[in-house]
Amino acid sequence: MANPIDFYFDFSSPYGYFASTKIDDLAAKHGRSVVWRPILLGAVFKVTGG
Question: Does the predicted model carry a pTM greater than 0.85?
Answer without folding.
Answer: no
